[in-house]
Design goal:
Elements: H1 3-13, E1 16-22, H2 29-39, H3 48-54, H4 60-71, H5 77-93, E2 96-103, H6 105-109, H7 115-133, E3 136-144, H8 149-159, E4 166-172
Parallel strand pairs: 1-2, 2-3, 3-4
């Protein structure tokens, strides 16, 4: 065996942690098509290969266009569980032992998918990964920076029953034209949220 192959094998065998993963962005083209068929959702790609080709992007917005097209197929609790577990299977194959995953509830609630359905599906996938694959995980609630501060507080309000499941809060999506000063620590939550 060559020194390079030895090193590759050594690295592959090391236990790993993934500390920044956006779960909706992990949707593989095959699962995207499977969920689109299952849910009767039209997507702007005619094949798995076309989706893979679209991943040759040059900027964040090009990626987000694919991201949101994929997110449109996620409609049921089972879809979110399947999404999470598919990611954990790939992660476990790379010897990932712990993952901290971001999720974007507003991407789904803006389409009429209830917050609880999203988070309960993801938690089911996380629990299954722990039981079947030995991969622990934490969930990070993200707000979409291109939406308003009021919409973020509405999402936070919907998250209240699930706060004990979250290890953190994040901010993501389109950066250009969407500065984040309204989400700074100097902006206290409204008096109605406690």
């Amino acid at each position: 065996m060559t020194p390079s192959a030895d090193l590759d094998a050594y690295i592959a065998g090391l236990p790993k942690a993934e500390l920044h993963l956006h779960i909706e962005g992990s949707l593989e083209p095959e699962l995207m098509f499977e969920l689109a068929r299952r849910n009767g959702v039209a997507i702007p790609y005619d094949s798995v290969e076309a989706v893979r080709a679209a991943y040759d992007f040059s900027n964040l917005q090009d990626f987000l266009d694919i991201y949101y097209a994929g997110a449109a197929v996620l409609l049921t609790r089972q879809d979110f569980e399947d999404l999470a577990f598919a990611y954990f299977q790939r992660a476990a194959a790379d010897n990932v032992r712990h993952a901290e995953i971001f999720f974007d509830p507003q991407t789904h609630t803006d389409r009429g998918v209830p917050f609880g359905l999203v988070v309960e599906g993801l938690i089911a996938g996380m629990d299954r990964a722990k039981a079947e694959l030995g991969v622990s995980s934490g969930l990070i609630l993200s707000f979409l920076r291109h939406l308003t501060e009021e919409e973020a507080f509405a999402t936070l309000d919907a998250a209240k029953p699930y706060l004990h499941h979250f290890i953190g809060v994040g901010l993501d999506s389109s950066e250009v034209g969407h500065p984040h000063p309204s989400f700074s620590a100097s902006s206290p939550p409204p008096a109605t949220w406690a």
